[in-house]
Amino acid sequence: MKQIANVHIIATGGTIAGRADSAAATVGYKAGELTVGQLIASVPGLDKLANLSGEQLCNIDSKDMKEAIWLQLAQRVEEAAERNDVDGIVITHGTDTLEETAYFLQLTVKTDKPIVLTGAMRPATAISADGPMNIWQSVQVAADESAKRRGVLVVMNGQINGAETVTKINVNALEAFQSPGSGAEGVIVDGKIFWQSQDITDALSANKMKFSIKNLTELPKVRIIYGYVGGDDGLFVKAALQDGARGLVYAACGNGSVPEKLAGLLKETVASGVPVAIATRCGGGVVVLSEIMTATNGFIAAGTLNPQKAKILLQLALTKTNNVKEIQKIF
Ligand SMILES: NC(=O)C[C@H](N)C(=O)O
Fold first, then answer.
1. Taking Cα atoms as reference points, which of 101, 93, 165 lies closest to residue 135?
2. What range(s) does the L-asparaginase N-terminal domain occupy (predicted)?
3. Is the CB–ligand 1 distance for residue 63 below 6 Å?
4. Chain-centroid distance, C-alpha 17
């Protein structure tokens, strides 16, 4: 008899575990209601795909995800990945902050086993709920040898995206997640996985790059400042600094376009020892800064990372060093 893989499911809540009063409701529901056991039971034949175990870490709407929960989750994922009787891990999660959790795990969890995050856009009680198929496909990816050494993956709506590139691009559609620029790593069609990217990492060197969170009880405070017309008075920069921010991410309107009025304050911020990463609100492209902005002013270019992911990398970089040049290298 063919051996099937062992997949451990960690449930955290979200719409995938959401319940509404009516089967037609896709908005007025409560996220984080079903338990991990109920989620597993809702997918017919899942036990034939893999030997399953499950745990409930929390049961929340992911708008309420906390960095303290990330620290617990990363530890639980790593512990599960170290077990000989676990071949892959699936994490069920709300979609609103799923990309952030995925990227945090990507930067912190040392393993070469598949780690897959999934969620749903329709609550579990809806007609044509997308959760069960997403769970099925996630377990399938987590159980597959070919998904090893690909970093943390997000499986939704038949697409497999990488944690670093994926972002939620639609608030209603089932195809809510995409990787602008790079595209999906793979797709799942008719129960088969088709990889579109051959981007397999060397697990040893990838793991060496990971940040250790073992002794952390909280992450350094980093705030995102959003760029927009009329938002150049520095109010939020000053408030963030007063509140003890150890780093800032500026979500510029374009490629590194810091308004003249704000540039002075941000330069002073860097000079005072608080690093500033420049990302973009554009949703695509690579932020590349001029020599003057990096070498002279000490700004950090976020590259392809969106502001919310640049924030996570800056937080973790700050656990190692405050040195702007070092942090520029990490980015
Ligand atoms: N589709 C979803 O999962 C949205 C929900 N608000 C959540 O992030 O938990």
1. 93
2. 6-198
3. yes
4. 19
Phi, psi of 320 (to 5 degrees): -105, -40
Residues 202, 153, single domain; the answer is yes
Co-location of 108 and 226 in the same domain: no
* Ligand 1 centroid distance, CA of 175 (Å): 14
Which of 173, 208, 243 is the C-terminal boundary of a domain?
Answer: 208
pLDDT value of position 197: 81
- Residue whose CA is at the smallest distance from ligand 1 atom 3: 94
| Contact between residue 119 and residue 93 where contact means Cβ atoms under 8 Å apart | yes
Spatial distance between the Cα atoms of 227 and 54, rounded to a whole number of angstroms: 42
In the chain, which residues have pLDDT < 50?
Answer: none
Tokens 């919310």 found at? 308
Task: Give Cα 211 to chain centroid, integer Å.
Answer: 15
CA dihedral sign of residues 35, 39, 45, 49? negative
Q: What is the pLDDT of residue 270?
A: 96
Cα–Cα distance measured from residue 272 to residue 270, given in angstroms and rounded to the nearest whole number: 5
Which of the listed residues 19, 26, 63, 125 should we mutate to test ligand 1's pocket, taking the one with most ligand atoms within 8 A of CB?
Answer: 63
Same domain, 38 and 168: yes
Q: 27 Cβ partners below 8 Å, 6+ apart?
A: none
The CATH number assigned to the domain holding 154 equals: 3.40.50.1170
pLDDT in tens, 40-66: 999 999 999 999 999 999 999 999 999
Contact 277, 247 (CB under 8 A): yes
Q: Count of CB atoms within 10 A of residue 54's CB?
A: 17
User: 96 labelled as ligand-binding?
Assistant: yes
